[in-house]
Amino acid sequence: MAVINILEKIVWDNLGDVIKRKAGACDCDICRADMAAYALNHLKPRYVATSKGETFSKAAYLDNQLYMTVIVALTEAVEVVSAKPRHEGK
Ligand SMILES: [Zn+2]
């Protein structure tokens, strides 16, 4: 058994799409990690005990309200990080 925050999976699964929708958003590893961290810090974690992560992640996707909440947080994260990216000087 493992305890996982299912929001983490939803964030990583959708981050790429949200970045693509935002003109000029960077998708380097540093910015992606900053965006994911920002979004997760603004979301209430939803931990589940699981032996099969797949089952729970599918259940999470069926929860449309939760999914939309994550997308809103991700959109804000992409905007905030894109306005002040940390990747300079890499
Ligand atoms: Zn970047």
Ends distance: 39 Å
The count of β-strands is: 2
- Structural class given helices, strands, pairing? mainly alpha
The helix content is: 55-70%
* Poorly predicted residue ranges: none
Percentage beta strand: 5-15%
Count the DSSP helices: 4
Strands across the major sheet, in which order? 1-2
Largest sheet: 2 strands, antiparallel
Arithmetic mean of pLDDT: 88
Shape: elongated
Q: How many domains would you count in the coordinates?
A: 1
* Radius of gyration using CA atoms only: 14 Å
Bound molecules: zinc ion
Oligomer: single chain
Question: Key features?
Answer:
2 strands; 90 residues; binds zinc ion; two-stranded antiparallel sheet; Late competence development protein ComFB; mainly alpha; ComFB
Short description:
It contains 4 helices and 2 strands; from the N terminus they run βααβαα. The protein is mainly alpha-helical.
What do you see in this structure?
The protein is mainly alpha-helical and 90 residues long. The chain has one domain. Helix content is 66%, strand content 9%. The protein is built from 4 helices and 2 strands. The chain has helices at residues 6-21, 29-41, 53-62, 64-83, and strands at residues 2-5, 47-50. It has a two-stranded antiparallel sheet with strand order 1-2. Helix 2 crosses helix 4 (64-83). The protein is elongated. Residues 26, 28, 30-31, 85, 87 line the site of zinc ion. The site of zinc ion (ZN) has 6 residues, from helix 2.
